[in-house]
């Protein structure tokens, strides 16, 4: 791995992490702590952006390897919170909130897949 690849990964990861934190705090202040809306928003938007970027990068030979790594593995790797989603789901389940546990799984999976598809469609329409 080249030096620029590593720098892109580090900068992208840091930026993604800061964006994830900001969105999570905004959702917490706006919608309250009862449901993991911040995690849901990050996972759905991350799926959309990944679908969009993977298609755009696949169609554009101008995108460098460093940019691809920085945006996908770096930024989106720091941005998406699938491990947090798993933890929150288990915590709902363990606290007897089975309806919230199932709602969290259904919302993240269904909306995440739909957002990925929408990202691909948006990229295809743009090209």
Explain what the structure shows.
The chain has helices at 3-31, 37-59, 65-79, 82-94, 98-126. The model has no long low-confidence stretch (mean pLDDT 93). It starts with a helix and ends with a helix. It has one domain (3-126). α1 (3-31) packs parallel to α3. It has 127 residues and is mostly helical. It is globular, with a radius of gyration of 16 Å.
Provide a brief overview of the structure.
By secondary structure, this protein is an all-alpha fold. The chain has helices at residues 3-31, 37-59, 65-79, 82-94, 98-126.
Q: How would the blueprint of this fold be written?
A:
Layout: H1 3-31, H2 37-59, H3 65-79, H4 82-94, H5 98-126
Helix pairs in contact: 1-2, 1-3, 2-3, 2-5, 4-5
Query: Oligomeric state of the chains?
Result: single chain
Distance between the termini: 31 Å
Helix content: over 70%
Low confidence ranges: none
String of helices and strands: HHHHH
Number of contiguous helices: 5
* Average pLDDT figure: 93
Radius of gyration (CA) equals 16 Å
- The number of distinct structural domains comes to 1
How much of the polypeptide forms β-strand, as a percent range? under 5%
Beta strand count = 0
Can you summarize the main beta sheet?
Answer: none
Give the overall silhouette.
globular
In terms of structural class, how would the helical and strand content be classed? Answer: mainly alpha
């Amino acid at each position: 791995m080249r030096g620029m690849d590593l720098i892109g990964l580090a900068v992208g990861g840091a930026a993604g992490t800061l964006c994830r934190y900001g969105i999570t705090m905004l959702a917490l202040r706006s919608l309250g702590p009862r449901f993991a809306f911040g995690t849901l928003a990050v996972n759905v938007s991350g799926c959309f952006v990944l679908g969009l970027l993977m298609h755009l990068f696949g169609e554009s030979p101008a995108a460098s390897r460093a940019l691809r790594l920085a945006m996908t593995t770096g930024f989106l790797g720091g941005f998406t919170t699938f491990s947090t989603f798993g933890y929150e789901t288990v915590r709902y389940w363990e606290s007897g909130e089975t309806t919230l546990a199932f709602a969290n799984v259904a919302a993240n999976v269904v909306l995440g897949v739909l957002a990925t598809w929408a990202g691909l469609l948006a990229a295809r329409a743009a090209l």
